[in-house]
Amino acid sequence: MTRGNDIIISGRVTIAAPENRIRYNNVATPTVILRRNDSFAKLLKLCEGVSPVTCAVVHPCDRDSLLGPLEAAERGLIIPVFVGPERTIRSLAEAEGVELFPHRIVSTDHSHESAQKAVAMVRAGELDSLMKGSLHTDELMAAVVPSATGLRTARQISHAFVLDVPVYPRLLLVTDAAINIAPSAKEKMDIAQNAIDLAHVLKIDQPRVAILATVETVNPEMQSTVDAAVLCKMADRGQIVGGILDGPLAFDNAVSQEAAKRKKISSPVAGKADILVLPDREAGNILAKQLQYLAGADSAGIVLGTRAPIVLTSRADSVRTRLASIALMKLLARARRSSAPSEKGDLLHAA
Hints:
globular; alpha/beta; five-stranded parallel beta sheet; Rossmann fold; single chain; Isopropylmalate Dehydrogenase; six-stranded mixed beta sheet; 17% strand
């Protein structure tokens, strides 16, 4: 032991390991409690008092894709219309012991016809929204994408995950993680605007948008940093509106004020981002799933930039995820109904 530079005590300590195993029976197992904001409870509460929206459930031919919409209907979120082989749907309902009445079934012969028919009904204004059933995502989106028969608008179609991360004090939107493989700067402009408009529906009035890269400086040899700089200048010129943009920002700088401070980054977005715009789909998908499976984040997902909101469910989705995604869909459909059409054809309106 020392005090300053003076030695007060010196000596040698010998530690002998016990010869027999020592057991302690009165030591309690530590409990780990994740701090949750429970933002999804607030999301579901936003839907209270709002009439359910009509929804085409496309090819609900497995247990989860049938029972999920039925539970959402019981909670007053949607009025489902099941589009698929009627015999298969009724047999599945009987096997699961659920009642389909009074919900409508539009019978089709196969999944391709289910997608085409459901999209046509939404396009014609018969239904407010669309939900993927047991068919493949690519098959559904193939019916959505065509300009002449699908649900495209003037905007680029994109996808956003809405995440409630236990250690982050606000909802976090991650885009695009499901549709655009390697978007250009022009496409990222729409991806960012779609997410900003979604944030407004979620009562985030002036969302902070971080354009992510692996560094914080613009490097002409790194396209993601160049795109970030272009998007920020677009926002300065009014080509992207309704949010505060900054980038390039690395992930740590976007979500940690301490990291931004250490790197001497002065920004209204750094450490407080509401929206993360990723360089490409791979980065977005990996980040969203890391937050879900390693950070315990609750997640919901929605397709944006279309004439009507679309939920792309996954077989791995929990009940909470499915309900939160349907709640997003309901809020977007309500906003579309209550707003005047946009000349640009934003995520809430047809082109």
